[in-house]
Amino acid sequence: MAKNEEQANSKGGLMGIIKALAILSVLVIVQVVAASFVIPTPEATEKLARDLASAKSGEESDELAEASYTEDSAGPPEQEVVEILIDGFSITRYNMEADKTVNIDLEVYATVLAEEQDEFNEIYKTNKNRVREQINLTIQAAEPSELSDGGLGLIKRRILERTNRALGKPLVREVFLTRFNFVQR
Hints:
Structural class: alpha+beta
Number of domains: 2
Helix content: 55-70%
Order of helices and strands: HHHEEHHHE
Strand content: 15-25%
Radius of gyration: 30 Å
CATH class of the largest domain: Alpha Beta
């Protein structure tokens, strides 16, 4: 009888270990499946790396490039856009490297879709100072060569990107800089 009890105990102990291993295996499999849903695909990882690299070098991401300024873009012809004055800016900064003062005067206009104008006005009203700050920082960070560029394309793209980011929504389709005056003394 003692021998039968030992066999039963050893089988029970062995079954307990098998059950524990089975439960542990199921948990590991569930975690692996859950992780496979969370871990990005190689394409998504590559795109994220490209976006981070372009952001670090000051370039635009693909999504922003599609909506950004080009010399002949005015939005899709079938959609009506309106021009809205963002604000006028008069910026003076000192360039220590060249020992010169830079004066920049400009007005910034944005184009938005007519159907989004009310939404833009509402969001802009609550974020006006953030938008102004982003435009001011963009102009102050610009190199003299960028400011003397005829089309001001790079500055317009940066203002467009930062304005949409400050608004929290890509409502601005295009940016125009009028009454632009750049003097370096």
